[in-house]
Amino acid sequence: MNSVFIIDDHPVIRLAIRMLLEHEGYKVVGETDNGCDAIQMVRECLPDLIILDISIPKLDGLEVLCRFNAMSTPMKTLILTAQSPTLFATRCMRSGADGYVCKEGDLSELISAIRAVLSGYNYFPSQALNASNAEEGSNEELELFKSVNDRELMVLQLFAQGRTNKEIAKGMFLSNKTVSTYKKRLMQKLKAKSLVELIEMAKRNALV
């Protein structure tokens, strides 16, 4: 029986995933709602598969993914998220993910992805890996987003969700000054003149 660990900050989603997995014969060995606890708990239980949402507090999912990938014991990680695959799927693949599933899809796709990943295959939406096929935003904007690093992208997403500098700093264990620096870099890289323009661009590209 394959063991699975769930990382998602929504209790209802964790419960739904757990029920689905147990019905399909998988053993859920643990779950948590944040990145910091996830690192420690996964080290202790060493699951066969980790199901990870990249929008989690304390330590964002992309950073968690990199840390899992750096562990001495290799583990398979499947991303289950509401984030735009156009912007995030390739980043997750580069960070070591084995698969990517959108929460908006049917739950049967999650099971298909789990089976594929546990069998040694990758499971990514093919159209998401080619930015030229994207429908969200413009091609010019997608090119600009390529210059934005993973941490900056997560900060932009939080701004787009209406979070303040102080809230972002607290949730990501950063200083207010660091968050302000990220905002300045984002405005430069995305050629935005204000935070309002940044947020509008984030919405056009399905970051919220």
From TrEMBL:
Transmembrane segments: none annotated. Coiled coil: none annotated. One of its GO terms (molecular function) is DNA binding. Gene3D superfamilies: 3.40.50.2300. Residues 141-206 form the HTH luxR-type domain. SMART domains: HTH_LUXR, REC. Keywords: DNA-binding, Phosphoprotein, Transcription, Transcription regulation. This is Two component transcriptional regulator, LuxR family.
